[in-house]
Specification:
Pfam family, one: MutS_I
CATH superfamily of the largest domain: P-loop containing nucleotide triphosphate hydrolases
Function: This protein is involved in the repair of mismatches in DNA. It is possible that it carries out the mismatch recognition step. This protein has a weak ATPase activity.
Number of strands: 27
GO molecular function, one term: damaged DNA binding
Number of domains: 6
Mean pLDDT: 87
Organism: Pleomorphomonas carboxyditropha
Distance between the termini: 82 Å
Strand content: 15-25%
Helix content: 40-55%
Largest sheet: 7 strands, mixed
Bound molecules: adenosine-5'-triphosphate
Number of helices: 32
CATH class of the largest domain: Alpha Beta
Strand order of the largest sheet: 13-23-24-25-21-26-27
GO biological process, one term: mismatch repair
Structural class: alpha/beta
Low-confidence stretches: 1-5, 8-13, 850-864
Shape: elongated
Length: 908
């Protein structure tokens, strides 16, 4: 290897060898990446990269040579397994520069023995620019986003534009936004990688926003965000003279978009993926959901970060990766335009009725390959024969499905749009690909073997020659055995010698003397064998090699032709892929509606919000799995000019939060164009959705639970309007009782008088129910419970009126608080109630102290009466409420209930 001198062997060397100098230079140009430095069959990493990678990948760290008096750390991964290692590094948030050998080592040698193989970085692998299926999640979009800022003046605030692209599918979008709305937009996009000019990182707030929005935030030099050259750079990327054909964009939007293409160029080192022209998203057309509400409602993932337990997981019945991605995109940005929503609902309606057609389409869709991602790989010259086959398969499916749709007389604008897109799929390309490609295909084009027999006569000839010669060689073994009289003579092949004749060493004498030595040329002597060749064998070998080489060249040229034709048809392919995804979403939502008993919501321009028999889409499924059933509840907070505020009181654990969330989720479902879990639903389209539920502190930002709650409440009071829908859960509980009550009180008044939005407000402050007498649109509602032998039984039914008490102590008892504590709490409560809360402290002074305190010091604390009770207590101790997802919490409750039942039995 000409690379022997990459690492200096001289233990005292402090001067880089030429090859080391090459490494150092390439590394210096990519300081923020781990450098995968190709050496033969390995990617090697040196110095700090080696230390980082060996730790991250659990591979051995070795040393080779010295530089500047220090050992050089080294580790490597084999090229054939590099994807797996890349995937792990990317998942851990690293970026990798892949540096390849750009010439044959033999070429380098020609320039002199000291010369180094030419190497270059061919690609930067970063989280937001992935294209390989094994590096990507098939069911998730992989967005790269760029944020551009226009500094405000004294009279104007800062303005922002965000561009985001999924390089694996080509989707490319833009939106303008404000500083206040930026976090919401980024939370919606969930960028896998986020780019911003390094100057923006001086702003603490922005830096935090970026960090919260993406696991990989990349500061870039200003040049990437140069407004003056943005338009030109975009036009160049899309090879158009002017961007006018794509629509009119603001300078700021162009700046963000140009940063994306510049970064794509940088990471792909000049190869260009087929990005769609950027399309503007009008944020006014979407239901706005701020980052905190989005997280609280657990739309696409739970607060713990998992997909399971989220709304998306509960409603996703899609059968293709592209369908799953589209559904997630729609859930991230529900619509706010009743007409567009109606179009989508029409399609769901149609497929709900057409059960046979739906089943047939879904069966077909389930096998449809991911065309968009295959197309990107083909465009970047990273594609293999199976990518071309995927496109052929996708196009054929599109034609078949279009036929199926038309036959069934599918109507409505969404179905028409889908059918049109599918019909426009380039059938002739599919036919061409199918004709050329074999049925069984290798992953890589490198070794050939993918073009169908009979497609090209010259290829067939070359292959025949190659194969015939192989047969002739096989036949030679017989001939040579006869000529030499050595029955055990074999013709064999290996990578070093090529074809050779092998005999046992005891025939050495005969083979190397007259007359056999005239025919057999000695090649190699091993301990157990002697090897020879013949002129005939070499000639045949040469013929095989040249025929194989010719066959491979023909196959590669066929591949190049097919790839070119495929890339040329890129727009139509992508459209067909989009429509397949849309069909998957429409049919899967129909499937969901059928399986879960959802109904079509009426969505219009009114300010109505009337749900009859509504259910929580996630809790309902979880309860069913556990054999329970969900109690449906109605909600009516609409009005002609302003919304109502339902003040929901009720015991702990009664189902208040569930009720609040279920109504927000029903609104979201309706506005993505899905049927909803209810008996009926009429929703005047919601423009903004706010949710202040659950409490989590944001210690990273130095904010306490109460502070977070107040910040989120402030956002609602400052922004909600009559068209908004707001759910607020237990505002003010994180502070002293009277402070909390006063804040809740004033908040309700403000919502009622100023915001006038449709609101659900859950609280434990029963004092607030008095507000309904003063504020005409405040309605009291409560969750019904029954008391039975001192315990509380939850009925989960929302009824008009207010709760008379909290039953907190009963719930605490259910949860397994030690009996002395429960008894003491009961006594305190009785006293507090007697005094009406007045003079509480002095009153408590009069109350006999907690009985435990008066025990003799040595007396053991009352032992749990039975092991089941001990287990229950241990289970409670093990709970960390702040770390539980709703699902886990639910499971915990069931577990505790089961343990509790055990105690009952034991006491029998
Ligand atoms: N409508 C319902 N039908 C059946 N079960 C329900 C219903 N609503 C809630 N539940 C069950 O009750 C549990 C508690 O509900 P939830 O958290 O909404 O109560 P909460 O009143 O908000 O309690 P807290 O005041 O303690 O926060 C849920 O996890 C769920 O299992």
């Amino acid at each position: 290897m000409t690379d022997a001198q990459v690492l200096p062997d001289d233990r005292t060397a402090d001067v880089a060898t030429p090859a080391m100098a090459q490494f150092i230079e390439i590394k210096a140009a990519n300081p923020d990446c781990l450098l995968f430095y190709r050496m033969g069959d390995f990617y090697e990493m040196f110095f700090e990269d080696a230390e980082v990678a060996s730790r991250a990948l659990g591979i051995t760290l070795t040393k080779r040579g010295r530089y500047r008096g220090e050992d050089i750390p080294l580790c490597g991964v084999p090229v054939h397994a590099a994807d797996d290692y890349l995937q792990r590094l990317i998942a851990l948030g690293h970026r990798v520069a892949v540096c390849e050998q750009m010439e044959d080592p033999a070429e380098a040698k020609k320039r002199g023995s000291k010369s180094v193989v030419r190497r270059d970085v061919v690609r930067l692998v970063t989280p937001g620019t992935l294209t390989e299926d094994n590096l990507l999640d098939a069911r998730r979009s992989n967005y790269l986003a760029a944020v551009a800022r226009q500094k405000g003046t004294e009279s104007a605030a800062d303005a922002f534009a965000v561009a985001w692209a999924d390089m694996s599918t080509g989707a490319f979008r833009l939106a303008e936004t404000t500083a206040a709305a930026l976090p919401a937009l980024l939370a919606r996009i969930e960028p896998r990688e986020l780019l911003a000019a390094d100057g923006l990182f001086d702003d603490d707030e922005l830096r935090r926003t970026f960090k919260a929005a993406s696991p990989a935030v990349v500061p870039l030099p200003r040049a990437f965000f140069d407004a003056a050259t943005a338009e030109h750079r975009l036009a160049d990327f899309f090879s158009v003279a002017s961007l006018d054909a794509f629509g009119s964009f603001s300078r700021l939007e162009l700046t963000a978009a140009a940063a994306i293409v510049a970064y794509v160029d940088k990471t792909q080192v000049g190869s260009r993926p087929p990005l769609d022209p950027p399309a503007r998203e009008s944020l006014g057309g979407a239901l706005a959901i701020d980052a905190a509400s989005r997280a609280n409602l657990e739309l696409c993932r739970t607060l713990a970060g998992e997909r399971r337990g989220s709304l998306l997981h509960a409603i996703d019945r899609t059968v293709s990766g592209a369908g799953a991605r589209l559904l997630a995109d729609r859930l991230a940005a529900p619509l706010a335009d009743p007409d567009a929503i109606r179009d989508r609902l029409d399609a769901v309606d149609f497929f709900l009725a057409e059960t046979t057609l739906r089943a047939r389409l879904r069966r077909d869709l389930a096998g449809v390959p991911d065309m968009a991602r295959a197309l990107t790989r083909v465009s970047l010259d990273r594609g293999g024969p199976r990518d071309l086959a995927a496109i052929a398969g996708g196009l054929n499916a599109a034609a078949r499905l279009a036929g199926g749709l038309r036959e069934a007389g599918g109507a409505g604008s969404e179905i028409d749009r889908i059918a049109h897109g599918l019909e426009a799929a380039p059938a002739e390309l599919a036919a061409r690909l199918m004709a050329a490609l074999d049925d069984e295909l290798p992953l890589l084009k490198r070794d050939g073997g993918f073009v169908r027999q009979g497609f090209r006569s010259d290829l067939d000839e070359a292959r025949a020659l190659r194969d015939q010669s192989r047969q002739v060689i096989a036949a030679l073994q017989q001939t040579y055995a006869e000529t030499t009289g050595i029955k055990s003579l074999k013709v064999k092949h290996n990578g070093v010698l090529g074809y050779f004749i092998e005999v046992a060493p005891n025939y050495a004498q005969a083979m190397t003397s007259e007359p056999l030595n005239r025919l057999f040329i000695h090649r190699q002597t091993l301990a157990g064998a002697m090897r020879f060749s013949t002129t005939e064998l070499s000639e045949l070998e040469g013929r095989i090699a040249s025929a194989a080489e010719r066959a491979l060249a023909i196959e590669l040229s066929v591949f190049a032709d097919l790839a070119r034709a495929t890339v040329e048809a890129g727009i139509a392919i992508k459209r067909a892929a989009d429509m397949l995804a849309a069909l998957d979403v429409a049919t899967s939502l129909a499937e969901l509606a059928a399986a879960e008993g959802y109904v079509r919501p009426r969505v219009d321009d009114s300010l109505t919000f009337r749900i009859d028999g509504g259910r929580h889409p996630v809790v309902e499924q979880v309860l069913r799995e556990q054999g329970g059933s969900f109690v449906a509840n109605g909600c009516d907070v609409g009005g002609e000019a302003a919304g109502k505020l339902w003040l929901v009181t009720g015991p702990n654990m009664a189902g208040k939060s569930t009720f609040l969330r279920q109504n927000a989720l029903i609104a979201v479902l309706a506005q993505i164009g899905s049927f909803v879990p209810a008996k009926s639903a009429h929703i005047g389209v919601v423009d903004r959705l706010f949710s202040r539920v659950g409490a989590a502190d944001d210690l990273a930002r130095g904010r306490s639970t109460f502070m977070v709650e107040m910040i989120e409440t402030a956002a609602i009071l400052n922004q909600a309007g009559a068209r908004s829908f707001v759910i607020l859960d237990e505002i003010g509980r994180g502070t002293a009782t009277y402070d909390g009550l006063s804040i809740a009180w004033a908040t309700i008044e403000h919502l009622h008088e100023a915001n006038r939005c449709r609101t659900l407000f859950a609280t434990h402050y029963h004092e607030l129910t008095a507000l309904s007498e003063r504020l005409p649109r405040v309605v009291n509602a409560t969750v019904k419970v029954k008391e039975w032998r001192g315990d509380v039984v939850f009925l989960h039914e929302i009824v008009p009126g207010s709760a008379d008490r909290s039953y907190g102590i009963q719930v605490a008892k259910l949860a397994g608080l030690p009996r002395p504590v429960i008894e003491r709490a009961r006594a305190v409560l009785a006293e507090l109630e007697k005094s009406g809360g007045n003079n509480a402290v002095s009153m408590l002074d009069d109350l006999p102290l907690f009985s435990l305190a008066r025990r003799p010091a040595a007396a053991p604390v009352e032992a749990p009466p039975d092991p089941a009770e001990a287990e229950l207590l241990a289970a409670i101790d093990a709970l960390a409420p702040d770390e539980l997802s709703p699902r886990e919490a639910l499971e915990a409750v069931y577990r505790l209930k089961a343990l509790r039942a055990g105690i009952g039995r034991a006491h029998g």
